[in-house]
Amino acid sequence: MSPFRSIIDQHPLSYAPYEDFYRKLHANPELSWREFETAKAVAQKLREMSSDLDIKEGIAGTGIIAVFRNGPGKAVMLRADMDALPLKEQTRLPYASYKEMKDVHGDTQPVMHACGHDMHVTALLAAAGILLSGREHWSGTIVFLFQPAEESTSGARGMVTDGLYEKYGCPIPDVVLGQHVSFQRTGRVFTRPGLLMAGVVQMMIKIFGKGGHGSMPHMAVDPVVMAAHIVVRLQTIVSREVQPGEVGVVTVGAIHAGTANNVIPAHAELRLSVRFTTAEQRNVLVDGIQRVVHAECLAARSPQDPIFHISESTNPMINDIPTTEAVSNSFKAHFGAGHMPLTRVVPAAEDFSELATAIGKPYCFWFLGGHDGEDYDRREKEGTLNSLPSLHSPFFAPAVQPTLTTGAEALVTAALTFLSAEKS
Question: Do 277 and 358 belong together in one domain?
């Protein structure tokens, strides 16, 4: 039996209020750096839990920490991210989002929690409820951290830069822990020591042509055709320059050019997401992109050199091995067959690690299954798992339960792995 089972069983949590909180969050998502109402709701929930929480708000705009000091021992940080995506939801759930809001550039966007951050927030609040109720069973300090702007891979760095550990007096944690919901079967948790997730570079490229009439392309330089050639040619960088078996991804997520059917525009913009697992691989990909773009512009007689702008970047996530092995052992004891090793590196990226690397502390991040169990089992039997709605899909929607309970218990179990067994 799990050594943490008694704490969870002796302090059973009524999940109904948290399920309601989750549905409200899901129906009211907010974009990166715009999580104002979400932060207010989180802070209010924390205040209702206990007057013993030392709550600090407004870190990097909307970030929150709630510190609970419970005697001598190690300090553990538990993190959840709060932001949503500029995506129109198509789940048709009773609590689906129909919200639109302006992003940081002033553009109005549809908004959806298509990456499960609403589940992360609610699971952390539920974990806080369990840990506060069972305070007599453990000793140490816990920091409950709610982070903005993970989707822009800049929120963690933003909190650190704004003085998380200095101005806001956040205790330096001995270990930083976090999780992410996935489209795997609900009720399961997945750990992997060492390299877990890719790093990312978000890049904007502006290429230049010569505008003209759509009927007279010979008198113009068409940046749309140039962009089309660039998109196709970029796909060869991974297939021909990255060593087979290594993780590398180059995705052109957006192309913007022109305003009319019969006008050849003067320029075009491409927005790229580049994934890598080593610094050397990052250099191969970024250098390759620049080389391809310059060559295509030269071939098309572009009148001006392209402009490259890297907006955000984060390093690959490499779980501390001893820390992750300790968490994995606790998960095995607590979840039994529900704990599974993750065999592959995840090509998606996360900025979670910057909360730990900024202060030279170890960290562990794991994945949490969220897809409905019956539907998952049916698809597995049919061989149709590839058709599951993935993260960032307009159809992505975790099963509220048992995902929420599993997520809360995973955070509690991981935290108690490093805290003293009883209060001194």
Answer: no
